[in-house]
Amino acid sequence: MSHYIMADFYKTIQDISEGLYKEKMSKFISFAIPVSSAEEAKETVKAYQKKYYDARHVCWAYMIGTDRTEFYSNDNGEPSGTAGKPILGQINSYELTNILIVVIRYFGGIKLGTSGLIVAYKAAAADAIENGTIIECHEQAQLSFTFPYLSMNGVMKLVKDTGVNIISQIFDNDCSMTIETNADDIPPFKNRVSDIDGVKIIED
Q1: Under a CB-based contact definition with an 8 Å cutoff, are residues 189 and 181 in contact?
Q2: Spatial distance between the Cα atoms of 2 and 180, rounded to a whole number of angstroms
Q3: Residue 122, CA distances (Å) to 35, 99, 127, 184 in order
Q4: Is 81 left (phi over 0), alpha (psi -120 to 50) or beta?
Q5: Can you give the pTM of this predicted structure?
Q6: I want to staple 108 with a disulfide (CB 3.0 to 4.6 A). Which of 26, 65, 157, 163 is the partner?
Q7: How many CA within 13 A on the CB side of residue 130?
């Protein structure tokens, strides 16, 4: 496997952080959660829905991937566009990705109206982000290759010198390895590893 995308930095949050917004007796508890896939985001939402089963609404939005093209928002019963979209809007204003924001609403008996809801969900989402630590990460990429057992020392020395992470390795008469490192370090690593006798790059 080799992925050649020009590497990118992306911003996400380090750990789960929490926020709160109160308006006319309604309470909006928000959580910003680092996630790495849509599946993980959806599973996490289920866990929050279960934990806050007594809340009127559990609304959420996520953004996944360095190119920030995979996203989804859910109003969970609030009027269309008043909850998920404002939450997603905050993820966008902070230029974050690989993040899920869940806002739990406990209804206080007084309706807020659409504009009031938009303000509340936006403020709750922003509060969770601001209470977290935003970190800049480097996009990672993987490279797989095979090599004869005799070339193992050369390969291991290169791996050690370049500090790449070994994802998987098989040492036999024919050996194979998958490494992961910053995406822009893959082409130079590929050139150097290809210079070792018998190394074959496995292309996608």
Answers
A1: yes
A2: 10
A3: 20, 15, 9, 36
A4: left
A5: 0.76
A6: 26
A7: 11
Rounded to whole angstroms, the Cα distance separating 200 from 177 reads 11
- Judging by beta carbons within 10 Å of its beta carbon (0-12, 13-18, 19+), is residue 128 exposed, middle or buried? buried
Give the CA diameter of the chain.
Answer: 75
pLDDT tens, position by position, for the chain (204 residues)?
444 444 478 999 999 999 999 999 999 999 999 999 999 999 999 999 999 999 999 999 999 988 888 999 999 999 999 999 999 999 999 999 999 999 999 998 989 999 999 999 999 999 999 999 999 988 888 999 999 999 999 999 999 999 999 999 999 888 999 999 988 899 999 999 999 999 999 986
Number of residues that make up the chain: 204
Classify residue 31 as left (phi > 0), alpha (psi -120 to 50) or beta.
beta
Cβ contacts of 166 within 8 Å, gap of 6 or more:
159, 177, 178, 179
